[in-house]
Amino acid sequence: MLRFKILASVVPLAVAAVFARVEFLPGARPCIEVGGAALQIASIPWFAQLHVSFTDDPRLATVRVQIADSVEAADFTVIDDVDDAEAGACESNTVPQLIAISSDRSASDPVIYLSHDGPSDYRVFVQSKTFSIRDAAALIVSARGGHRRVEAASL
After folding, report:
1. CB atoms inside a 10 Å sphere around CB 150
2. SS3 93
3. Residue 32: enclosing H or E segment and its boundaries?
4. What is the DSSP annotation of 46-70?
5. Neighbours of 53 (CB within 10 A)
6. pLDDT tens figures, 47-83
7. Domain limits of the chain?
8. What DSSP designation does 95 have?
9. Is-contact 114 133, C-beta < 8 A?
10. Backbone dihedral angles phi then psi of residue 98, each to the nearest 5 degrees
11. What pTM, to 2 d.p., does this model score?
12. Angle at 100 between CA 95 and CA 101, to 5 degrees
């Protein structure tokens, strides 16, 4: 009976420790600094202040992001070739604004269409071990307020 009581008291503590680790020590997450503010991909989506989603249909997109073939053709470039676990982490002292990539579309959140060609609002080039193309697109769109630029081309 004593063993059962010990087990019953240890299991909730172990679960709490796992959730605390996820919340407080998520490891390096893709992060950028823009104008003194830090934007970071959230490790837990429900804690994020901003949400973006992706679509395969350009007609549903509110923002189009082109995957650039070269650094020169990109508006936003991420290149890292280090094996450091902290690569891509912000070095700012400010608390980062968290961005979640969600599968659910909301009318108020940006919907991003990724393509290799065609008209685009932003162009990204990513060659990274810590950033995915989706991470880079979510960060640049969130940094720009999630709205299309005025000079962007349309379909």
Report:
1. 6
2. coil
3. strand 31-34
4. GG-SEEEEEES-GGG-SEEEEE-SS
5. 19
6. 898 999 999 999 999 999 999 999 999 999 988 765 5
7. 28-143
8. P
9. yes
10. -90, 135
11. 0.71
12. 150
